[in-house]
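---------- Forwarded message ----------

FYI, see the Beta-1,4-mannosyl-glycoprotein 4-beta-N-acetylglucosaminyltransferase record below. Original note from H. follows.
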Amino acid sequence: MWWMMTNEGGHYCSKKSDDICGNVCGQESNRGLSMSRIRCIMRGLDLKTYIFLFALVPTCVFGIYVHGQKISYFLRPLWESPPKPFHEIPHYYHENVSMERLCKLHGWGIREYPRRVYDAVLFSNELDILTIRWKELYPYITQFVLLESNSTFTGKPKPLVFSAHRDQFKFVDPRLTYGTIGGRFKKGENPFVEEAYQRVALDQLLKIAGITDDDLLIMSDVDEIPSRHTINLLRWCDDIPPVLHLRLKNYLYSFEFLVDNNSWRASVHRYQTGKTRYAHYRQSDDILADAGWHCSFCFRHISEFTFKMKAYSHFDRVRFSYFLNHKRIQKVICKGADLFDMLPEEYTFKEIIGKMGPVPHSFSAVHLPSYLLENADKYKFLLPGNCLRESG
């Protein structure tokens, strides 16, 4: 020990103390005593140790600043448990099997006539994906319902893109209920508040469109596309669940990068007046397997990527301005990497580690929307082997 108390309450110094440590003797202040101890410790450190400390501390701080989000996502399994598993309903389909047989295979009866179907979406700027969606669903939709705002979810002004390009969608015009809503433009507000505000407005637009009890209502984002045979099955079969989620194949950037089969937010509802509310979260435990496609960030132009990155509810993922660099985005797309340099959003270490790194390339274009394949030249950027994008 450097010092010890005498019976009289004074300090006793060891004979082995150096000059600095010797100064501890006679100190009446605990503060002075503590400072002297620190001086003793610091004197014992050589130059190499100083250099190491001054290099290590800033490096650690910078590493946490740059990769803090990755660290947080990787440690997610420590504080967040996986959600309750869905009740998976097997999906039976073949074009040569009768509807009566298909309904029976699912444990459902067959109706005398099909239900009416309403497809309702909030629209931002996804013109190509909207076209593919509406062409896929067109044979079985009673009314297409689209709501567009002059504000992004983040409160920034945006043009009415659909309104400006409405001539491209004349094929749905007789069956289209289109509405606009003014943004509130509140700076600093949580983007999910504006998103919820627009979804409530979509409820009102559905009433204008004429939806009634037991009609089918598709609730999904524009890029969450149910397959047409899925919707035809649900409109013809009796006794289907009142709320049924759809498990979609999850793609990134194009149908070349199949992430997994775990997209679940899309849902189909048997409408109930006063009870059904348009939402984009889990509303049931029932889910129908292999029911369509989710193609996230499947844009033709690089400018559309940057617009969405700044406009949608997760804009906080753009942590650095260089994330919006066009050359970087093009490189990320062709590699199948993450635009925001994030780790997978999973609940177990096994799933996180298994999905780390770029999404593997897929060369299958089987069972994709028919309109996409019929117009492959126009939409080649969505097909395997065509990762290069237009600047826009």
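H. also flagged this: The domain at 89-316 is CATH 3.90.550 (Spore Coat Polysaccharide Biosynthesis Protein SpsA; Chain A).
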